[in-house]
Amino acid sequence: MDLTATSSLEDLSSVIVDCTSCPRLIGWCGEVATKKRAAYADEIYWGKPVPGFGDPKARIAVVGLAPAAHGANRTGRMFTGDRSGDWLYRGLYRAGLANQPNATHVDDGLELSDVWVTSALKCAPPMNKPTAAEQNTCRPFLRREIELLENLRVVVSLGGIGTSAVARHFGLTPRPKFGHGVEARIDDRRVLLCSYHVSQQNTFTGRLTESMLDDIFGRAVELASVPVD
Description:
The chain is an alpha/beta fold. It has one domain (9-224): Uracil-DNA glycosylase-like domain (Uracil-DNA Glycosylase, subunit E, 3-Layer(aba) Sandwich), CATH 3.40.470. It contains 8 helices and 6 strands; from the N terminus they run H-H-E-E-H-H-E-H-E-H-E-E-H-H. The protein has helices at 9-17, 23-35, 72-75, 83-94, 132-148, 159-170, 200-203, 210-224; strands spanning 53-54, 60-64, 115-119, 154-158, 183-185, 191-195. It has a 6-stranded mixed β-sheet with strand order 1-3-2-4-6-5. Helix 4 packs across helix 8.
């Protein structure tokens, strides 16, 4: 997929939204949007690929796995309208990277500063398990996002798939072994910083605490502020 003609993140977002390259994923997004969850029965679901969101001049990027079926696939904005997003945006707010601690819908007034939030996969996958072929098909979108974030200094990867996607993009050899707080130098300007995903599986069990997330974003801000020689 040649995305070199996209000259801005806004252009890229339009291409992402129109993508129909993975029939299984497009079908699943549409099915979820039609059947809906009872709590959102009166809402109109987005039901399409979800582009990244944030500050185009960001020095920090947050890369998750994929839109949540009843979160971003419903609202049309990454990590918006679900409990994972509640954790993420509260953390960004505490770190001074967001103007408010909540993200409920696209018109809720949320603004991000110095951070871009995106995902390795742009469509919600069934059971949160994309196939290898689907990951490969979607990879050019993340690649182009990273290219267009000209001030990027730190990539915070949420979970193993996000980490693998970023490591693969930059050709890191050997690939860093995923672990919370693990850092890997990408080049002389950029750093990969790994974090447990903000999923309920991690936050409900205490595997990821708010303090741990604060440490990640505090470190990201610190790394992003280091002068480049």
